[in-house]
Amino acid sequence: MNLKQLSEYLNLSQTTVSRALNGYPEVNEDTRTRVLKAAHELNYRPNTRAKGLATGRALAIGHVIPVSNQHEMVNPVFGDFIAGAGESYAKAGYDMMLSLVADQDEARAYQDIRARGTVDGIIVHGPVINDVRIALLSGIGLPFVVHGRSTDVNLAYSWIDVNNRGAFERGTQFLIELGHRRIALLNGLEHMDFAFRRRKGYETALQNNALSIDPDLMRSEEMTEIYGYRATKAMLGYEDPPTAIVCSSIITAIGARRAIHEAGLTLARDVSIITFDDALSYLENGDDVPIFTALRSSVRYAGREAAEMLLSLISVPMNAPKTRLLEAELIIGRSTGPAPT
Amino acid sequence: MNLKQLSEYLNLSQTTVSRALNGYPEVNEDTRTRVLKAAHELNYRPNTRAKGLATGRALAIGHVIPVSNQHEMVNPVFGDFIAGAGESYAKAGYDMMLSLVADQDEARAYQDIRARGTVDGIIVHGPVINDVRIALLSGIGLPFVVHGRSTDVNLAYSWIDVNNRGAFERGTQFLIELGHRRIALLNGLEHMDFAFRRRKGYETALQNNALSIDPDLMRSEEMTEIYGYRATKAMLGYEDPPTAIVCSSIITAIGARRAIHEAGLTLARDVSIITFDDALSYLENGDDVPIFTALRSSVRYAGREAAEMLLSLISVPMNAPKTRLLEAELIIGRSTGPAPT
DNA sequence: CACTGCATCCAAAGCGCTTTGGAGTGATTC
DNA sequence: GAATCACTCCAAAGCGCTTTGGATGCAGTG
């Protein structure tokens, strides 16, 4: 069932049927209802490709996920972010397109996306420090919103981010106020912008309290469980081990907890953990009393907002870049306690 | 840069340029190389929508993720599955399209997808017992591959699945051979086909060994960490608590482990855990020695295979349905030991 | 009554590509 | 020397939609 068939069935021109369906004024209300009724009954759906060709709009948003060769893993927060974004797209009638792009040929990939015209805009995932994609996309002229920011990029661009620096400063400060002096940081990969900012926040808190920054207490890796376990195990073996750990991911925190248990130590009493918590749906941080004291910010919410930001950017093309900084809340759970004496 | 401009630049017809680019024989090799060179230099990419309109193929695959209202969470294995599928698509030049579909209006959603013509085929996620989508899609005539199977559906359809029943029978048998008699099952939601099969496998092993099936030892919920924790905590409070637990997800197993620790018990010595392990990239089950004894099958691999299955189904339309049953391997880790006496 | 203006409708062009049905050329065959 | 053939190339139609630029009919106006 296509437009032509539908219009023949209705004894109307394609023009009129098209206008009736798309809500244009130059069509009699009676005919419009007649058209809508027939379209519904005959289960007519306009062909997306044809519509896109004619209008120049794709009614789709692209999500580009960089996949590096060394660590080709999909970030665990990705699923929740997508779920959030998907809600917004569904409401607006947009499709969601995923591309996994090897990070060595990103430039080509974005050119491709643009030239092939499959999407009206894209969400940029996993920005790194001084991310070249931002200049690239600005040049290409394809609307985009970055999930996160990119330090050292001086262009104006749209982004939605969590206040990573503020959150980690606050979390570290919280531990310091509990009397901790040896505080470790299990960070994500620090060429990633979010991780870089988190370290800055951590360092700021230490400096504000005249505590020294010890490179032996700082790790930076892909945020897996096993990483949390290994790093914690190693550090607990130090002569002067940390009494508290700041984690960049709840998964890493789980690994850290495992190492603490295995060492025969007790969480909160012997070693405290504070972690960033993306509020992943399948890794809920406890219920009434959180398992981990955490800096929480829902990545699903961020996805929803990012999508809406992009859609509004697309609908009003010459709009100035939009930005949005989300604050993470500090929630007290059962993984922190005063420093052991 | 479109075909017309490119052909004018080359002083050739669009026909010839198109043929040169698409590898048709009726074009001189010299002109072909000339065309390819120019296309490369001028960064020409055919417009996907136009190409799709002309060929009737979308060069895209749809992934439909059911989102129920009660538990609107994205399955954590989804990210890895997608990553695997994405690899196959990228190689074949296909795009990947995601749709989140509320499960009450699935029928419409699939009709929509078909009529709008945005994809050439779809991957069906999260099949339930007697899943109506299979009949629906067969009727619609859109190629599809199911990730999993659907018990009670008598149509022939393409699927890729893990031998869930066999895996859980084997895992349970393994525990029985270690001397365990009180074995709990922390399953996923049992209207989901995979969970239903897993329970069957678990029950079969018990029956084969003349052990009774105790409903108090069987739980069925969304496979979160907190679920594993709560269920385990509750069961450890029984007069006759389980000495071993079979988990449907490593995340749930982590929750179970937390409850075991909290009860002052030791994993493997006091309580054993065996879990299904989808080999998620960010939840690696240890390294040389796995944390959990597990039934392992890479969901990422499944994604890659599912995608290839679908692509071959599309390229040879009248192909008979393909099926593929993956076996999970039993890997021995540090979470199981002989039953305490 | 001729004219204007509004409300409805339509034919046809165009979006960027593929593909059908030739057309032109030179070489080969008898 | 005419006929045949393989090799290259092209013009134009068509995919299913939107949108421009009218055409038509009818009420209102002076």
TrEMBL record, chains A, B:
Q: Which SUPFAM superfamilies match?
A: lambda repressor-like DNA-binding domains, Periplasmic binding protein-like I
Q: Where are the transmembrane segments?
A: none
Q: Does the keyword Transcription apply?
A: yes
Gene Ontology MF annotations: DNA-binding transcription factor activity; transcription cis-regulatory region binding
HTH lacI-type domain: residues covered: 1-55
Family annotation (InterPro entries): HTH_LacI, LacI/GalR-like_sensor, Lambda_DNA-bd_dom_sf, Peripla_BP_I
Keyword tags: DNA-binding, Transcription, Transcription regulation
Signal peptide (residue range) = none
Q: This chain belongs to which protein, by name?
A: Transcriptional regulator, LacI family
